[in-house]
Amino acid sequence: MNFEAIQAAAKGYEADMTRFLRDLIAIPSESCGEEGVIRRIAAEMEKVGFDKVEIDGEGNVLGWMGRGSKIIAYDAHIDTVGIGNRENWTFDPYEGYETETEIGGRGGSDQEGGIVSSVYGAKIMKDLGLIPEDVTVLVTGTVQEEDCDGLCWQYIHNEDKVTPEFVISTEPTDGGIYRGHRGRMEIRVDVHGVSCHGSAPERGDNAIYKMADIIADVRSLNENGDSDDTEIKGLVKMLNPKYNPEHYEDARFLGRGTCTVSQIFYTSPSRCAVADSCAISIDRRMTAGETWDSCLEEIRNLPACKKYKDDVKVSMYMYDRPAWTGLVYETECYFPTWINKETAPHVQALVDAHKALYGDKRVGSPSTPEAAEKRRAPLIDKWTFSTNGVSIQGRYGIPCVGFGPGAESQAHAPNEITWKEDLVACAAVYAAVPGLYKGKGDEDVCEYRGGRTNNDIK
């Protein structure tokens, strides 16, 4: 394989990739409103010579190249979060900007840069004849990830009937190759109360006061240690072999789980009445050894929840927002943890490509201090946040690995930027991977996988 030719081709497409990314940034594409960006990606795929381009029922765009039976897929979610408080931006988030080295705008790092590099990585493969005869390359621009991680790949796997040999997630990795991340779930706690006139609150049963006790316990669950004399042992306990004997080492690799109250709701007849219900949402990040049902039971067993007994209901959210196509594809808000073995063939294919092209250190010199510091971390690592890998590998066991342009610290942040150097490096590595992949062996590539629930969903 001529690695110098791959590098030269990727560098030669830098201006095309910059133009393409700026076009995508200019089209607002929040979850469930991605049609404009999807159609722009489909047009670029056709322009650069994909063999087939299609948009599925959920609104994902799938670009195919090659004719082999073995599918190697590159996934990029192309929806973004909103811009938040416009006053926090120093430039127009959709007009964006570019300098000699960087591109600014909503979606630059999270994660429209990934689809740009993968489309042009596939073009380089075709230009240089790098697709093996037994391989078909699939590039997916996927929707609704910011709303519901992995829902798109539930649809692709179950309805489009696509099961790749492995998938490269192009989420931002700060120049690293990422072999897993924590899972997450969205928990709801409802508390029942009884209303009365606010002038005599003792006649009622204030649901907000009950919830205040529960919120204090949720905070303790996140912040406490795990000593024997601690009533509510904190989530740090999963790093301790005493509490997590089978998976504490994996938990230490991923990092401890967390929980935080992210939303609060109430009902009351008026502002001069006692609240008769209160509910909260909990964002729960899950490390190895934690399951969807163990996380629910953990909340149910908090002292305040046990104190209020039947007045408390703990449940998992369901997601049912319509896609931009109008499709409703309901699923549970549970997103499983996963880790690959470092020795897995698909992980090593990326490592081999990176070492051949750029060496064994992360490339790039980003202009933000946090991103620059991250480039000094080991080449093989893990994400802090969650990706479509929760379905690809966490739910279905399809091998997945991450390498993508941009920085985690830029995700969801105002003044979001990415770096042209990353677009080039990722396109080059993507192009080299199919020819370096040695195929599946007998070894299970999963080091840890949360798996599906036993709930009756598609």
Give your account of this protein's structure.
- InterPro entries: Peptidase_M20, Peptidase_M20/DapE_YgeY, Peptidase_M20_dimer, Peptidase_M20A.
- It comes from Dysosmobacter acutus.
- Residues 180-302 form the Peptidase M20 dimerisation domain.
- Keywords: Hydrolase.
- With 458 residues, the chain is an alpha+beta fold.
- Strand 1 and strand 2 form a beta hairpin.
- Helix 3 (35-48) packs parallel to helix 4 (108-128).
- It has helices at residues 3-12, 14-25, 35-48, 108-128, 151-158, 207-223, 248-254, 292-300, 303-308, 345-358, 369-374, 389-395, 420-436; strands at residues 52-55, 61-66, 70-77, 97-98, 102-104, 135-142, 166-169, 177-178, 180-181, 183-192, 258-267, 277-286, 312-316, 318-319, 331-332, 334-335, 338-340, 380-381, 400-402, 417-419, 446-449.
- It is built from 13 helices and 21 strands.
- The strands form six sheets. Strands 1-2-6-3-7-19 form a six-stranded mixed sheet, sandwiched between helices.
Helix-strand layout with pairing:
Elements: H1 3-12, H2 14-25, H3 35-48, E1 52-55, E2 61-66, E3 70-77, E4 97-98, E5 102-104, H4 108-128, E6 135-142, H5 151-158, E7 166-169, E8 177-178, E9 180-181, E10 183-192, H6 207-223, H7 248-254, E11 258-267, E12 277-286, H8 292-300, H9 303-308, E13 312-316, E14 318-319, E15 331-332, E16 334-335, E17 338-340, H10 345-358, H11 369-374, E18 380-381, H12 389-395, E19 400-402, E20 417-419, H13 420-436, E21 446-449
Parallel strand pairs: 3-6, 3-7, 7-19, 8-18
Antiparallel strand pairs: 1-2, 2-6, 4-5, 5-20, 9-17, 10-12, 10-13, 10-16, 11-12, 14-15, 17-21
Helix pairs in contact: 1-4, 1-13, 2-4, 3-4, 4-13, 10-13
